[in-house]
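Chapter summary example.
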Amino acid sequence: MELPLKTTVTFLALLTTGLSSGLFFAWQVSVIPGTKRISDYSYLETMQQINRAILNPWFMFIFLGALVFLLWNTYLNHQLADKGIFNLAIVAAICYAAGTFGVTAAGNVPLNNWLDAINIKELSELKLVEIRANYEVKWNRYHLIRTVFSVLSFSLLLASLLIQNKS
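The structure predicted for these 167 residues follows.
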């Protein structure tokens, strides 16, 4: 049996958005509290290595795929008679596009690039403290924003499916 395009796109939007929001949420409640407990050098080295490792095809499929599938899902829902479903779909897409993708691109990525260019092995303890303070506070703030918006986007998408299922 072949699935209709709308069903396939909705499934992929739900899957990728759920995985993306889950990744960000898990990071927020486990990795961030854990990294607060390690030394400045260890923190900076860890963040450099994680920022390099996360640039992989699986993460890119989930992170970028969520954006693509949410927008495609919104487009496919535009023709529905029930505008409530379309409204939830478009707000979910906007939340992810601006609050998750946009904040990552404009906030987290530039900070990651800045940190990656630093040779932390050559820094004094005082400089390590300064760089960590400058990076960590900003990065965590951006991360919290993208976490909230990715979870909100996922929740709105789920709500649209529940409404659609009742129809």
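To summarize the output: The chain has a mean pLDDT of 95.
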